[in-house]
Amino acid sequence: MGEFRATFGGDGVLSDAIVVSGAEAETALALRPLGSELNLLETVDDVTPVAGDHGVGLSGRNEWVTYDLLLETFAYNPGLLHYEVAIEPHAQLPTGTVELEWKFVNPDTGEEVAANMEFFAERASFAAPIFYAYSETLDATLLYWFDLTRINPFIEVTRYGPAGTAGHRGRTFGHTLTSTDLRKLPTGESVALYDAYLFLTPGRPADEGAMFEDFLLQVSDIYDLIAKPEISLPDWQALAQETLTDLDDPDTWVELNGKRYWRAYVSDTRQSAEAITQLDVGLGAARYAARYGDEQATRIAELAEATLEDFYNPLFGLVQNSGPIAVTGSQGRGDTWYELGHVLKMAEWGLLGSEVAADIALRSADAWMEYAHAVDYRFHRFYNFPDPDNPAAAWQGSEREPDASGGYAYYMLLLLELTGEERFLEEAKAAVEALAGHGFLLAYETHITAQAAAACARLWQITGDPHYLALSYGPLANLVRLAWIWEVDYGPAAEATTFWGLNPTQRSGVITPKEQYEAWIYLDEYLRLVHGAVDPSVEKLVAEFLKYTLVTLAYTLPPLAPEGVATENPAAYSTVAANRLDLYIPLEDMRDSWGTWGAIGQEVYGAGMAPTLAALAYREINGVTVYSGYPAVLTEDNTAVITGIPPYETPVQLFGATLETFATTSCGEAVCATVPGGAMLSFEPN
């Protein structure tokens, strides 16, 4: 284990524990499955070396259970330890308290000692089952990872709530199971109880940049070892057609002043609208129309485009969310990610050819630059719009949205693309510097966090300065922490894929299509720009997110969701009382099997998902459509290359061509193959 070693046995005070210690530290870690009172290792009947000199198997039987424990270290990953424990109960659980399995101890006396932990990242609800911290007494940085996917049978039998593992309490950390969970296990059946990793590195990261990089590289190493579901790519082209058709359903829109406005939610009864929905639906349709020339998408885009001016408030100089303004009047206060997202989408739509959207994006620039300068690019969550009657209060606010500086930089770079004006480039450069200093609290809204990474990639492409690639690791690390890097394979949701689902915020333990499909847009761009320029481990994680997102998000469409997981009666808002599970409009909230999907509603403001993914994931390269989990890029010598790294693989579909080199099968109108990351695609058009 590099500068650490793992030992077991002997006659000392810790003979009943696996002890992990450094060469000189006065503190060690003791591993006792189930804790001190019910410690499985008090009885060891057999010790078997495995994996050469890098592992050991322990097994035993006591009054209530038989167990098998595997402990592994890795020569190519010094400091990394893996352990798994399976048990088979044969009697009632004795009296005793179940404790977290790891404890900080004095290796000479066996007594507990203070951990003095500085937590860089704790587990976000339902997201990556980790914590990442520095222990002063151990003088080491710890990354703890629990492979929840491998204990799905335990979760199924006990109805265990997996949101809380990994956990820590005082001087202990580990798996948060309880004696109540253990009593639910049937006798005579073996079940995996633990499957976890501990990555120890000496000392504390030198700075925030080193912390983010170390985290990403260590997660990447563990990712190689955890369970991952097998997948096939959904037909986003067909799903887009279903969504576009359903956007004509009267439950998705309201007519105001003779115009159609799409509602925020299916069956929303409010006689008003939101800019976020018009931009999501309209831009998604515009992307699809630009890619395929589809008449239905063109009509929807035109209807949405006709509403855009109704949300621009000349008093504020920017786009507000509530509208149309003729109905709602001026909005009382702003929420940065909303209004920033509006002008950013206007700019994106402008780059697709909408003169209306481009004009609004540019008209809003001065107000946004004034706001950015007033807060030194450290944007508030809630803030005051400019008011001629109280100019001193303009842009004052409360709380922070740290990643908004990256979203703002991305908006500036879109304006640079629209106009060529150098001032927008300088604004973007200044804004991304405000991304530093927030640690794992950088992410506020995760699609904005992804915009921050893409802004850094664009700045690197423009300037060639590697500083921007290093800066991008902060947003990426935050996104990895908030991703469901485990698979729900219990209860009714077992029929869906949840792997690499993405929480929308730090505190929201749900997968939300709006935030995740937009994160896909910006990380897709990120990877296409930086392919081969970032650490391969980082490229691998981004590529895997992109691949699994295409699969996971399909299940947010009610007709594809597993039977029985979604409610027809959302209850989050009084104005949204019904879901339409026949419509291909995504459920706002995808959960595990113990939660109810769609409890918030169906987000029409995320209905641009299917048209967008159908437009952007199917990329035309040299006259051939390539649909791949990892983005395909065209190199300078006109060679098509799949991003990502080997040996990781992705499904690939080619339309209108024959793929050479790789074995293919016919899949409808396409040929399908499994292709390793980094591979060149050699194809012959039909």
N-end to C-end Cα span: 54 Å
CATH architecture of the largest domain: Alpha/alpha barrel
- Rough shape? globular
Strand content: 15-25%
> What is the radius of gyration computed over CA atoms, rounded to a whole number of angstroms?
26 Å
CATH fold-level label of the largest domain: Glycosyltransferase
Strand order of the largest sheet: 4-5-6-7-14-11-10-9
Low-confidence spans? none
Q: What is the C-level CATH assignment of the largest domain? A: Mainly Alpha
The helix/strand class is: alpha+beta
What's the helix count?
A: 17
Helix content: 25-40%
Overall mean pLDDT stands at 96
Number of domains: 3
Number of strands: 34
What this model shows, in words?
This protein has 686 residues and is an alpha+beta fold. The chain folds into 3 domains: 4-204, no CATH class; 267-551, Glycosyltransferase, CATH 1.50.10; 619-686, no CATH class. 31% of the residues lie in helices and 23% in strands. The strands form 9 sheets. An 8-stranded antiparallel sheet has the order 4-5-6-7-14-11-10-9. The chain has a 6-stranded antiparallel sheet with strand order 1-2-3-8-13-12, with no helix packed on it. A 5-stranded antiparallel sheet has the order 26-27-30-33-32. Strand 26 and strand 27 form a beta hairpin. The longest helix has 18 residues, at 275-292. The protein is globular, with a radius of gyration of 26 Å. The termini are far apart. The mean pLDDT is 96.
